[in-house]
Amino acid sequence: MAGRRALGRQFGWLWAAFVVSSYGTGLRFGAFPMIAVLLLHSGPSQVAALAAAGRAVGALVAVPLGPWVEFRRKRPVMVAMDLARFAALLSVPAAFALGRLSFAQLLVVSVAVAAADIAFRAASGAYLKALVPPEDLLVANGRFESTTWTATVVGPPLGGAAMGMFGPMTTVVADAVSYLLSALGLRAIGGTEPRPARAGAARLRAGELLEGWRFVLGHPTLRPLFVNSIVVNGLIMATEPLLAVLLLGRLGFAPWEYGLAFAAPCVGGLVGSRLAPRLVARFGQHKVLYTAGLLRACWSVGLAFVRPGVPGLVLIMVVQFGLVTCCGLFNPVLSTYRLDRTATDRVVRTLTAWSVSSSAAIAALTAAWGLLAAAIGPRTAIAVAGVLLLATPLLLPRREHAPLDTRNQAASLT
Q1: Which band of pLDDT confidence, cut at 50, 70 and 90, is reported for residue 188?
Q2: Which long-range contacts (CB under 8 A, 24 or more apart) does 194-200 make?
Q3: 273: phi then psi, degrees, rounded to nearest 5
Q4: Average pLDDT rounded to a whole number, residues 338-342
Q5: Which of 17, 28, 76, 324 could form a disulfide with 182 if both were Cys (CB 3.0 to 4.6 A apart)?
Q6: Residue 338 binned pLDDT confidence (cut-offs 50, 70, 90)
Q7: What is the Cβ-side half-sphere exposure of residue 115, based on CA atoms within 13 angstroms?
Q8: How far is the C-alpha of 160 from the C-alpha of 30, rounded, in Å?
C-alpha cells in the first residue's frame, strides 16, 4: 500500500518530468560511441576517452555548482539544467546537418551533460526533501528508482532499433526533446518556493566547495556508506567495457544476445525498488540497507565464469538479475537515509560531493581496469573486480550511530 500512496499533484509533475527524461536517456544509450565510430571514424582510445573524460571532467566542472545551487531556489536550477542539456545535445545533430561535427564537440557535450546531470540530481534531492513529508521520502525515492530501471529495460532496445533504422542522431534528438519536456513539467508544478536563507558572507567562499565532503566524511554512518558506494559503483562500472570485449569478441555473443543479457535482468531493479518500502516498514531502514549492501557484493564474481552459448547467456542473466535486484533495493533506501540525516541547508552540497566522487571513481577505475585487462586479460580482470567487491561489505556501518536530522525537515512549498 505504501508504494501506491498518493503524494500529491506537485510530486506527480516532478515524477512525470523524471519519467520523460529517464526514457530519453535510455533511448540515447550508446549513441555517442556509435557516432564517434561510424560517423567520425574514431579509434578505440578515442571512444574510451569520450566515456571516461566526459564523466571525469564533468564531475570537476560540477564541484563549484554545489555551493552555488545550495542557496538558490531549486526548481529554477533544475529547469536551467534541463534546458542546458537540451541545448547541448541538440547542438550535435545541428552540427552534423551542417557538416561541422567533430570529436571535440562530442567531448564538450559529454562534459556539459555530465556536469548538468550532477547539478540537477543535487538540486532535485533538496527539492524532494522540501516537497515530500519525511515519512513519504522512501516511497518517492522508490518510484524514481523503479522508473530508472524500467527505462533501462525499455529504452536501450528501442533506441537500438531506432539507431539501426534512422541513425544515431535520432536518439540524440529524442533525448534532447525529453529534457525540454522535463523542463516544461517542472514549470507545471506551480506554487512558490522560498529562497534559502544564507548565513554569513554573501559571496561564495573557497572553503564552501569542500563543505559537502567535510560533512559526509565527518558523519559516523554516512562516511562508510559513502566509501562503500563509490567503491562498489566504480568496480561494477569498470568491468562493463571488459564484458563487452569478452562477450562480443572472444565468446562470440551476437549483439542482440549481449543486449538481452543486460536489459532483461533490469526487471530486478523494479522488483527491488517496489519491495523497499515494505521491507523497511518490517525490518527497519538500517537493517535493510546493510543486508542489501551485503548481498549486492556477492554477484559480480560469477561473471568471470561465463562460457559461450546458452549456458553462458543464462549465467549472465541470473547474475545480473540478482545484482540489479539488490541495487534496486539498496539505492532508494540509501537516498532516503542520506536525506533523513542531512540538514536542509547542506543537502545540495552533500549530494554534489557524493555524485562528483562517484563519477571520478568510476572514471579512474574504468581506466585502471582497462590497463589491467591489457596486462592479464579481460576475464581475469573481471574476476579481480568481483573478488574485491566481496570485501566491500566490510565498509558498511553495522550499527546506527546518528539520529535523524530534525532541522528544517520539510520546508513548505505553497
Answers
A1: very high
A2: 194/73, 194/411, 194/413, 195/71, 195/72, 195/73, 196/70, 196/71, 196/72, 196/73, 196/345, 197/71, 197/345, 198/71, 199/345
A3: -70, -30
A4: 90
A5: 17
A6: very high
A7: 20
A8: 8
Quick one: average pLDDT of 92-113? 93
Residue 224 CA, chain-centre distance (Å), reads 19
Contacts of 24 (CB under 8 A, 6+ apart): 155, 174, 175, 176, 177, 178, 179
Out of 242-251, 257-266, 387-396, the most confident range is: 387-396
Whole-model pTM: value is 0.79
pLDDT at 290 over 90: yes
Count the neighbouring beta carbons within 10 Å of the beta carbon of residue 138.
Answer: 25
Say what the pLDDT of residue 401 is.
Answer: 57
Written as nine digits, the cell of 368 is 585502471
Pairwise CA distance, residues 160 & 78, whole Å: 29
pLDDT band per the 50, 70, 90 thresholds, residue 406 = very low
Report d(CA 111, CA 50) in Å as an integer. Answer: 9
* pLDDT tens profile 264-275: 888 898 899 989
Mean pLDDT of 313-330: 93
Q: What is the mean pLDDT of residues 330-346?
A: 90
From residue 413, alpha-carbon distances to 13, 41, 99 in Å are 14, 50, 47
Single-letter amino acid, residue 334: L
Question: How far is 179 from 377, CA to CA, in rounded Å?
Answer: 40
